[in-house]
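Design request, tokens follow.
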């Protein structure tokens, strides 16, 4: 049993949009979250990881139309693909759901009506661009034109990719609808707004509690200082989403019901497993609520979501953990260079655990971008995971099979060395807890080096040939496999499949506290390869298959 108080933790990662397949950028976040969740479970905490597909909005409606299918068919197909690809990367959701569900409709309507009845919803008329040919209002990204500042053509309605200028769509020169090419008309429509400025002080207090990384807290405080604006939570028909109660033809904006999707997915899990949903979401709840997100959506998770929860009588998040973008070879992912890599393409050529390990070796608790350097990727996985960790087991298992009937020694000849390894557990646990995975990996690999130095110094391959060297060979290989077991306990959150194979090989548990138990006089299974080296040809195949 753990020697610490057991925590109840609900964890989410951002909802992938049901408009396209997962790519490695999505996997960076899911793997970061999954490592943290597996670590918490290994420590004996009650930890649930829920997610869902973000299944609403104009983009989904239009993509389905182009494909000649209904939006419902589109999101169903994507849901199956997303679930398959996340599972392929060993991401273990306790529930992977969808925002297009009755649970999500229920909570969206409930939260909206509570906000409305408490005076936090404002209705007013706004003027928007309208596509007369498509018969719908256009969001900024569906308007294109010439940048008013640098005069570059074919730029979107909110910012210029050439010079970085931000502007409103009205300022674009020769603006057209990106959907039909028609010139947009300005039309009036009545919209509903969440009165966010009323929550400025509440948010200031929440941001000051340490729920966010310092650079994110600073950014949100800047927005508070600049003055918050009311948030438009409605969209006009035609729109794929939930209709607003008592407002025919008006729909909830996708970003209103997307974070509520966390609650919907959790409610679905609670009903399936007989858990008490309310005990997690009450304002006085002792459960923890952790969101893992990318830095592009901090306004939704750091301002709108906590304000909306509080206004509707729910608890606010314990923490929002933000990560940077994934770059490949030092640049934005690119289809022409073959570095915009889909999850499925990667899995067709390479083992998921290679990437899980590399992400862990690069991730820290800050908001820095993470670069996937392909040469470093191959070198690091081969030298660390295969050359250092797997090597310990593969070097020593053969002696035990040939000479000792796969049985470990009945006594431990190096109790001090084992203690050196087990006592690192609390430091490594702190690194995982703080999402300082790169530091955890460095500490684990320093121990792997130490284990290999021990084997090199003892030279069991020499001892085995010496007269009377049997007992010492047995002792050395038994110590080495106990050290290997401790390393695999520490790596289990990152390399769950390899840890599972190691557990079968050693016939031993891999939870955090299992590291303290020395395997003595213990029968093991014959060794089978745990993970093989990456061949650069496999990596080239991934890049070639990703090139457009």
């Amino acid at each position: 049993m753990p020697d610490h108080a057991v925590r109840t933790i609900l964890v989410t990662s951002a909802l992938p949009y049901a408009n396209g397949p997962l790519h490695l950028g999505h996997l960076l976040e899911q793997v970061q979250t999954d490592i943290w969740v597996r670590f918490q479970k290994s420590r004996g905490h009650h930890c649930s990881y829920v997610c869902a597909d973000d299944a609403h909005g104009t983009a989904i409606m239009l993509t389905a139309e182009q494909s000649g299918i209904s939006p419902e068919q589109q999101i169903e197909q994507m849901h199956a693909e997303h679930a398959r690809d996340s599972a392929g990367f060993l991401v273990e959701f306790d529930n992977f759901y969808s925002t297009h569900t009755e649970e999500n409709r229920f909570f969206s309507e409930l939260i909206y009506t509570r906000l409305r009845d408490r005076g936090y919803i404002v209705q007013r008329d706004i003027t928007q661009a309208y596509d007369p040919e498509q018969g719908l209002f256009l969001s900024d990204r569906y308007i294109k034109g010439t940048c008013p500042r640098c005069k570059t053509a074919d730029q979107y309605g909110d910012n210029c990719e050439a010079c970085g200028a931000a502007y409103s769509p009205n300022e674009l020169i020769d603006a057209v609808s990106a959907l039909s090419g028609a010139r947009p008309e300005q039309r009036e429509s009545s919209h509903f707004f969440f009165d966010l400025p009323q929550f400025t002080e509440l948010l200031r207090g929440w941001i000051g509690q340490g729920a966010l990384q310092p650079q994110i807290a600073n950014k949100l405080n800047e927005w508070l200082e600049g003055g918050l604006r009311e948030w438009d939570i409605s969209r006009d028909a035609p729109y794929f989403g939930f209709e607003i109660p008592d407002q025919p033809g008006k729909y909830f904006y996708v970003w209103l019901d997307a974070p509520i999707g966390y609650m919907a997915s959790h409610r679905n899990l609670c009903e399936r497993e007989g858990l008490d949903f309310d005990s997690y979401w009450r304002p006085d709840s002792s459960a923890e609520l952790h969101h893992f997100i990318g830095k592009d959506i901090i306004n939704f998770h750091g301002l709108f979501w906590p304000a909306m929860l509080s206004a509707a009588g729910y608890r606010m998040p314990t923490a929002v953990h933000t990560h940077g973008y994934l770059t490949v070879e030092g640049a934005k992912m690119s289809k022409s260079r073959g570095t915009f890599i889909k999850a499925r393409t990667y899995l067709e050529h390479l083992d998921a655990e290679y990437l899980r390990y590399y992400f862990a070796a690069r991730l820290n608790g800050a908001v820095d971008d993470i670069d996937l350097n392909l040469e470093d990727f191959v070198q690091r996985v081969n030298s660390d995971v295969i050359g250092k960790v797997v090597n310990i087991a593969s070097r020593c298992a053969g002696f035990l099979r040939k000479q000792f009937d796969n049985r470990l020694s009945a006594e431990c000849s190096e109790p001090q060395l084992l203690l050196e390894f087990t006592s690192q557990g609390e430091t490594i646990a702190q690194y995982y807890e703080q999402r300082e995975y790169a530091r955890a990996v460095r500490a684990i690999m320093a121990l792997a080096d130490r284990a290999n130095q021990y084997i090199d110094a003892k030279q069991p391959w020499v001892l085995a040939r010496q007269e009377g060297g049997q007992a010492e060979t047995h002792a050395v290989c038994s110590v080495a496999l106990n050290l290997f077991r401790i390393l695999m306990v520490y790596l289990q959150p990152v390399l769950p499949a390899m840890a599972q194979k190691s557990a079968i090989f050693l016939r031993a548990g891999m939870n955090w506290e299992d590291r303290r138990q020395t395997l003595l006089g213990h029968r093991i299974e014959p060794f089978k390869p745990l993970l093989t080296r990456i061949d650069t040809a496999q990596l080239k195949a991934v890049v070639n298959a990703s090139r457009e």
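Comment from the thread starter after seeing the answer: thanks! The chain has a mean pLDDT of 96.
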